[in-house]
Write a structure and sequence with these properties.
The chain is mostly beta strands. Helices cover 0% and strands 48% of the residues.
Length: 409
């Protein structure tokens, strides 16, 4: 809207669940406000308000009906809603469906499973394990894991492409150095001793297209069997308080500590690893794992995918390790009953209230995918699922999106 003299900008947004106000700073004659976080089929009232420097105020009201759910987005079903015991916030995830040739989608839903924001990527391969994460500028969307060059991107809340690059990355991409650098997982075929390919860790400056640091797995670790995809690296986590990384290698069923300065593999935790289990258990506590995260300086939560013909069930496992004694034990775990088996995707996040959000992602024509939140006592308090053919790779619980902002440029 416009005003005949410079005036303030304010927009009240009321969709029947309380009023959110978007305020601008300064006085202007042209007023433009971006509104986000609405949900399909909501009936809203927008009230524009302005006041000039002399205190003369005016307002105008208009009704707005939010369209139905876009066809690009699959319907989601909320199976469990535990109310106040659920970690507050909305949930960010990727969506993919290679059977209907859907490009990767980043989406946000609220506590009752209603879409509140989405962005469709038209330049990445379908059917991929694409990570998405909230950053200060908007959403960072990774490339696919379908092989070759992919197109990770940074988009703002208006869907504008802030950055996009052709990179041979997969599974993990992180912003570092106040958004000036990227850290991602890549692949190389230039390995010694006949090893066919290997995962890499790359630190990259998108502004200058410069590789700042690169680490190659096969230069520091020799696999027992030199076969294609012998490591399948799928997650990277900075080690708390150290210049080191925790690297997840799915095919090796292991977590590896990498020293950034020397490049040395300091230890391996998991099947065939350097640690001894001392909690009384005898089985390897995780197979084909995904998405480890530190929940303490010496404690890791991860998604245990399990393995075909060995343990066809997936869930979350928490492990405490002792680097001096080289011992470890399982301190918490949860698996759904009846079992859900995810042979290729998954995530487990510890939430602020102590609950755990798990991503059960599947990619086939017969199965659906699930997001499940449980308490430390194992009570299922939130459960959202997709239709068949649709899958998600990871999910994060985020603060609700603001109602929007005043556009000043």
């Amino acid at each position: 809207w416009t005003t005949p003299v410079p005036a303030s900008t304010a927009l009240d947004v009321d969709c029947g669940e309380g009023t959110a106000t978007i305020l601008g700073d300064g006085l202007r004659m042209d007023h433009e406000v971006f509104v986000m976080g609405l949900y399909p089929e909501a009936g809203c009232v927008f009230t524009a308000r302005s006041e000039d420097g002399d205190g003369v105020a005016a307002e105008a009201e208009t009704a707005f009906s939010v369209p139905s759910r876009p066809e690009a987005l699959p319907p989601l079903e909320l199976l469990v809603d535990g109310g106040e015991v659920v970690q507050p916030g909305w949930t960010l995830f990727n969506l993919t469906n290679k059977y209907e040739q859907s490009p990767p989608i980043a989406a946000v839903v609220d506590a009752v499973g209603r879409y509140r924001w989405y962005h469709v990527r038209a330049t990445s391969a379908t059917g991929s394990g694409t990570p998405v994460s909230r950053v200060s500028q908007g959403i960072l969307i990774g490339g696919s894991n379908d092989g070759g060059i992919t197109w990770p991107a940074l988009v703002d809340w208006e869907g504008r492409l802030l950055w996009e690059e052709a990179l041979a990355m997969h599974h993990e991409i992180l912003l570092e150095a106040q958004g000036e650098e990227l850290l991602y997982l890549g692949t190389t075929t230039e390995c010694p001793d006949g090893i066919p390919d290997s995962g890499t860790i790359v630190r990259y400056a998108p502004g200058t297209d410069e590789v700042l640091w690169k680490w190659v797995f096969c230069e520091h670790f020799t696999p027992a069997e030199a076969k294609t995809d012998w490591d399948h690296t799928n997650a990277l986590v900075p080690f708390p308080g150290e210049d080191a990384f925790l690297l997840s290698a799915k095919t090796l069923n292991g977590l590896f500590k990498i020293d950034v300065g020397t490049g040395e593999v300091l230890w391996r935790l998991g099947k065939g690893g350097d640690f001894v289990r001392t909690d009384g258990g005898t089985a390897i506590p995780f197979l084909r794992q995904h998405a480890p995260e530190f929940v303490g300086p010496d404690e890791v939560l991860l998604f245990d995918n399990g393995k075909e013909t060995v343990r066809e069930k997936s869930g979350a496992v928490q492990i405490r390790f002792d680097e001096e004694a080289m011992t470890y034990g399982v301190t918490w775990s949860w698996y759904p009953d009846p079992p859900i088996f995810c042979h290729m995707w998954g995530d487990a996040d510890r939430l602020g209230n102590g609950n755990t959000l798990m991503t059960f992602g599947r990619r086939n024509e017969e199965n659906d995918s699930h997001l499940i939140e449980v308490t430390m006592d194992g009570d299922e308090v939130w459960h959202l699922k997709t239709p068949v053919k649709w899958g998600w790779y990871r999910a994060d619980r985020i603060d609700p999106l603001p109602a929007g902002y005043v556009i000043t440029e």
